[in-house]
Specification:
Number of helices: 18
Radius of gyration: 24 Å
Bound molecules: nicotinamide-adenine-dinucleotide
Strand content: 5-15%
Helix content: 40-55%
CATH superfamily of the largest domain: NAD(P)-binding Rossmann-like Domain
Number of strands: 14
Mean pLDDT: 95
CATH architecture of the largest domain: 3-Layer(aba) Sandwich
Distance between the termini: 66 Å
CATH class of the largest domain: Alpha Beta
Low-confidence stretches: 447-452
Shape: globular
Largest sheet: 6 strands, parallel
Structural class: alpha/beta
Length: about 450
Amino acid sequence: MNIAVIGAGYVGLVTGACFAELGNHVTCIDIDVKKVTALQQGILPVYEPGLEALVKSSIAENRLHFATSLADVSVMPQVIFIAVGTPADEDGSADMRYVLDAAKGIGDYMTDYCVIVDKSTVPVGVADQVEGIVRAQLAQRGATTNFDVVSNPEFLREGAAIDDFMRPDRIIIGLTSKRARNIMQELYQPITRHPEKIYFMTVRDAEMTKYVANAMLATRISFMNEMAVLCEKMAVDIENVRIGIGSDTRIGARFLYPGCGYGGSCFPKDVKALIHMAEQHGIDPLILHAVEHRNVLQKQWLPQKIMARLGENLTGMRIGVWGLSFKPETDDMREASSLVLLEKLIAAGATVLAYDPVAIPMAKKILPARWLTSGQLVLAAHQYDALAQVDALALVTEWKPFCYPDLGAMQSLMRQAIVFDGRNQYNPTQLRDAGFEYYGIGRGIEKALETV
Ligand SMILES: NC(=O)c1ccc[n+]([C@@H]2O[C@H](COP(=O)([O-])OP(=O)(O)OC[C@H]3O[C@@H](n4cnc5c(N)ncnc54)[C@H](O)[C@@H]3O)[C@@H](O)[C@H]2O)c1
């Protein structure tokens, strides 16, 4: 099939590269000229395992192209995906500017029937707006071209995006037209050998499914974070509780990990947008407010614990930070817990030595330049360089190289052997036996220590 994907960010690029890998002819369109020029040379704007190889091979096979405008696509695509950003607006609602601009571009360009697919996460009713805009643009040109608008929200996880796309748990497709249904079924056929993996529903149902899925996942995290706070006060180890409840098949073990808060480009903005949708309909979303509030508090956990131990004034103190990205296997730092931690530590006068396996270039791009020029923040080239004479280590992101560190090397490098484990990666007993002072989340550690 001929496909166009509007927006060559995380989702657009993965969508385009994967459909090209499946033999389709794909053009990814982005208004960011620099991004497009780099992509044409196989240089990716994001880090995602496996993506670069996929992009390069499909470029070489002449199946994947990049352009800055639909006008550059000579063969009319049968399917046009909209995969542009939908960031949170000031009032928490999802900003639809980019989606509606993309719709306008499609209406100006379309010459033949095509299926327009909303892959961006959009509030209920946006597909109708997209349809209205395309229709208005066509009318302006006196064109009567037929088309369908379909909702096909994306559920990929950054860091595992290719696998999630190629082996999805499910594909949600909202539509009404039979013609569009046949095209979507054909498009996804290679990755949905089991037909029950595609769920057809109305467009509005599909739009809502995406928000409810993300809100549910965020709720599980905030719930466990709240339980961790309670466990910590009661000399209970949340990790044992997690295993205990996760073995209940009604609950399940995934997405039950307490930590120093969720981040990324999706959960925070999607919870906000759902709150906004609820309020617009006169519903007070009590649970969603609590999920968001707990997450804000949770991101304070690391700085608060560090200051409770080392003092409010951290002048002269050096703190090592492992992990800057919002989760492992990505360089995405949007809404990352590390941002809150760095800001608090630097404001308190500390010198921060931070290391991340892939997010250092991203950190240089998005963090205040004055932190680096003043020496308040040092971006280390190696994980152990971030421990030089530090008074404590804060683990923020559970990258694999941090799982089994050389405890002896850490001891000899650190000025004070104190570990604040924001992801409960370490065995408290093992660390204590190795001479570390250890703080995990919800591990009842302070109370437990009193009794040893
Ligand atoms: N990142 C994820 O893990 C993820 C997962 C599932 C769903 N989503 C959703 O997918 C959508 C895209 O997210 P993302 O993370 O890929 O965003 P992104 O910010 O990485 O990429 C968006 C891209 O769209 C481009 N763009 C904006 N307006 C355009 C236009 N009119 N024409 C062409 N290009 C345009 C931007 O330049 C940018 O490159 C969002 O709605 C998001 O909520 C994201």
